[in-house]
Amino acid sequence: FSSQTITGNFANVIHGLNANHLTDQVIQRSKRMILDTLGVGLLGTSTEVCHKVTEYSKIYSSDISSTVWGHLDFRLPPLYAAFVNGVAVHSMDFDDTWHPATHPSGAVLPAVIALSEASPQKKKISGLDLLLAFNVGIEVQGRLLRFSSEARNIPKRY
């Protein structure tokens, strides 16, 4: 990407981030957001919509798999594990919010966890790397919403 474009500049900023950029306050807030998201997600595994997407996703398999929250009996390919776990988080509608209106952790955390579980053993990421990936995901989501002309009017539409 050329740094002369908004996209190129944004990509350069994101690419340049590392765990040293995480302040103590960001780390503590991130841990609280993650804990909250896991709790809401585990509660959401009991909802009808989560049961439906779980059953639907069982048709997919792969040599690489990730955890489906609340299920010890099977795993799914990372894409579908993230999908099911994200549905679980959103199904109760108690997950965190951000302005403009979005639920950042429910979209980001399931994907980050699924990908971290699918990493080869020799490339396992640290807890700090997971926090960095989580925060980069939250930042990307927030900035994309800020760039979106559709998102600017969400509060007025409701």
From TrEMBL:
SUPFAM superfamilies: 2-methylcitrate dehydratase PrpD
GO cellular component, one term: mitochondrion
Source organism (scientific name): Bucorvus abyssinicus (Northern ground-hornbill)
Pfam families: MmgE_PrpD_N
Protein name according to UniProt: IRG1 decarboxylase
PANTHER family per the UniProt record, alphabetical: 2-METHYLCITRATE DEHYDRATASE-RELATED (PTHR16943), CIS-ACONITATE DECARBOXYLASE (PTHR16943:SF11)
Region forming the signal peptide: none
GO molecular function, one term: aconitate decarboxylase activity
Domain MmgE/PrpD N-terminal stretches: 9-152
GO BP, one annotated term: defense response
Top-level taxon of the source organism: Eukaryota
Family according to the record: Belongs to the PrpD family.
